[in-house]
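call fold(seq) -> tokens
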Amino acid sequence: MPKSFVTGIDTQVQAQMCDLLNARLAEGIDLRLAVKQAHWNLRGRGYIGVHELLDEVSARLGDGTDMMAERVALMGGFARGTTQVVAEKTTLAPYPVELTDIEAHIAELVDRFETYGKALRAAIADAGDAGDEDTADLFTEVSRLVEKDTWFIGANAAA
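ret:
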């Protein structure tokens, strides 16, 4: 791992944080692709609102993964965000590709957002325990957006 001149954090901790960031990066990219899969294929009552919401959600997920990847690079590591790495490393369940029902998409997405949110909260704790408050703060920022988007998507479910 190349040396970072920016953080002043021990190189062993930096390597640990790069691994943690890359793990959440893989899940974030996977989740963003699931959002786009739903965006392209959903049908049903409320279509246009959910369709447009998912574009916004996808953009926010992209912002979060970009921050994680840039933090890895800042620490002297290598962001691992190729589709091959994501497919190998994600812990999210595979997204069903033949869904059209809007309610089914909402349920599938909420489930994955909740899983990702739990992983982000664990990463906040792990980064804090390692003494890297900046990485913990980054995970907190992404977690807040993910929780809000979980609510936004879930609010579209039939009552």
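The chain has one domain: 11-154.
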